[in-house]
Write a structure and sequence with these properties.
single chain; 2 domains; five-stranded antiparallel sheet; 5 strands
Length: about 220
């Protein structure tokens, strides 16, 4: 398995050429961080001599501890072999060409919604996953859409979809924490809960140094 020290070495040219980037563990993130995390994960391979770089974008106001690839993809150019003396230069160029132009413009929640579409992510677009979309609907203040998801989550069909342990936790979080506040139209309570989730995600991913807490759109509505 490639090491953190090897990751630091290989991304040095990238960090030097892009002052808005920072390395956190095996992730190169774009700073500052608000509600949306944009980054490049320098993943491990079964082959201990290879890296697996991939870019991704996620929102932080759902409890999470990783930069998942639901809204991302692998970075290709060469075989990312640590023995290649030109690897830092090649990886830097590939990330600058394939990843940064895509993810840098995604700064707001609305930007994310416009990005995570069926046209770009055929199998993982945002509207396909109501248990993800409800967080975004709440953050944007679209409680009508969030209510429709709560109504669906209360059906037997939805309950049977959330049987694995992690999915069951997500189901309970939505139905027992979010949906009662949505039913009560408690916008301040929903905003507080999203801030709590976001702070937890930031801590879990060790992003505190680069995180700037900001209001959600639901808090800015007149």
């Amino acid at each position: 398995m490639t090491t953190i020290a090897q990751v630091k070495q290989v991304v040095q040219p990238l960090l030097q050429r892009n002052p808005d980037l920072a390395l956190v563990g095996r992730r190169v993130i774009i700073k500052p961080i608000h509600h949306i995390l944009r980054g490049i994960s320098i993943g491990r391979s079964i082959n201990p001599a290879l890296f697996i770089p991939a870019w991704a974008v996620v929102f932080l106001f759902e409890p999470r501890d990783s930069l998942s690839l639901n809204w991302g993809e692998r970075i290709y150019k060469v075989t990312w072999d640590v023995a290649d003396p030109d690897l830092p230069t090649k990886m830097c160029e590939a990330i600058e060409e394939q990843a940064l132009p895509l993810v840098r413009p995604i700064k707001t929640i609305d930007d994310f919604v416009g990005f995570a579409t069926k046209e770009r992510f055929r199998d993982t677009y945002l509207d396909l996953y109501e248990h993800r979309k409800i967080f975004v609907d709440i953050a944007r203040g679209d409680l009508e859409s969030a209510r429709s998801i709560c109504e669906y989550m209360a059906t037997d069909r939805a309950k049977h979809r959330y049987l694995p342990l992690k999915m069951d936790e997500e189901y309970n979080r939505i139905t027992k924490e979010l949906c009662p506040l949505i039913a009560a139209n408690d916008r301040p309570g929903l905003a507080r809960l999203l801030h709590k989730y976001e702070e937890g995600s930031v801590r879990a991913m060790k992003l505190e140094k680069y995180w700037e807490p900001t209001p959600f759109p639901i808090e800015l509505e007149s």
